[in-house]
């Protein structure tokens, strides 16, 4: 899914075109933090029958496939420390949207987490799943993790700013030209905050 989201123009850490080999090292690091229990994975699933056009080669298909992919990418089996929130029909459902909640290494910042890698399968965009994913993440952060706030960053010029504002986030800062997507194309890094 990460490859498809990137190649459709999603702002998830890469600039298209990408392949699975391009993303795999970053995915391994990201999912290893989930496996260790440092970061949390929030997923939305739909019943398998709602996605009849799914490709069998999709590395994140059913939730069990997602768990297996987590183990394969990180090189170890998932254990009980992995913090995963799920929303939607299970078992046998397909993961259609996911994000990560990163814990700060600073003890002074443990009352909030950073949202990153927000992704909705391109085949399911426009159906409100992104908004549902953000709401599920906020509920999980508040109710299960006891957090007071979430923060996130995105690059300007993608439409993500409007989306995050609709989800209740407020812009709290901007670093001009901090993200270089091409030699003559620098974007602002836009910082958002959500009080829970």
From TrEMBL:
Keywords: Acyltransferase, Transferase. One of its GO terms (molecular function) is acyltransferase activity, transferring groups other than amino-acyl groups. Residues 18-196 form the N-acetyltransferase domain. Pfam families: Acetyltransf_1 (PF00583). Coiled coil: none annotated. SUPFAM superfamilies: Acyl-CoA N-acyltransferases (Nat). PROSITE patterns: GNAT. The keyword Acyltransferase applies. The keyword Transferase applies. Gene3D superfamilies: 3.40.630.30. This is GNAT family N-acetyltransferase.
